[in-house]
Amino acid sequence: MRKHFKLKHIVIGTIIAAGALAVAPLAAAQTQAASETSANPLAQSDKDFVQAATMSSSTEIDAAKLATANSEDKDVKSFAHHMMLDHTKLTAELKMAAPHGVAVPKDNSDTAVLGSLRGLKGKAFDQAYISKVGVQGHKEAVAAFEKEAADGQNPKLKKAAQDALPTIQKHYQMAQDLAAKKGVAQ
Asked: How far, in Å, CA of 67 to CA of 61, rounded?
């Protein structure tokens, strides 16, 4: 009787786990889309900002992880480490600033950018990483944060953008300096 009871719990547990795994991709898709639904209280400009800011930070973090593995340059690795720390912090701050009921996507990296970096190693990786993620990525991030800081409708998101803007601008300058030092066209 005891074995049957234990086996029944194992089977039920397995069914529940399988169900959770089947629902996980749906939940992830809903999380990403949550910042874009008409049901939440955000103006379109704020929704666009949440999407752009989370994509930027997520891409920075994932690309920095690639840089740790694929770069042999200490300056590139140092820059990547700095980006990983700062963008992890910025993501947490954005989540805190988001209004209740607005899901902030956790992982919505730009797959095209990451895909273009994945097969590269050494100097080829460094040049692409500095150009696409460091310079271009931060140029776009600065524009998104400046737009939200100036035109944002949600006061908490607008303040979060204003507070984060100096850090994003500093990253952009660091990326430009790194590009100049390593001879990467901007």
From this structure: 10
Contact 97, 159 (CB under 8 A): yes
Domain ranges of the chain: 35-182
pLDDT at 4 > cutoff 80: no
Task: Render pLDDT for 49-59 as a digit per residue (tens, 0 to 9).
Answer: 999 999 999 99
Contact call for residues 42 and 102 (beta carbons, < 8 A)? yes
CATH code, 35-182: 1.20.1260.10
pTM: 0.77
Find all residues with CB under 8 Å of 21, minimum gap 6, and list them.
none
DSSP assignments along 143-170, one per residue: HHHHHHHHH-SSHHHHHHHHHHHHHHHH
**Cα gap 32→36, rounded to integer Å:** 8
pLDDT given at position 107: 85
Q: Classify residue 96 as exposed, middle or buried by CB count within 10 Å of its CB (0-12, 13-18, 19+).
A: exposed
Which tokens is 40 given? 């939440």
Task: Take residue 123 and report the two structure tokens written for it.
Answer: 């100097």
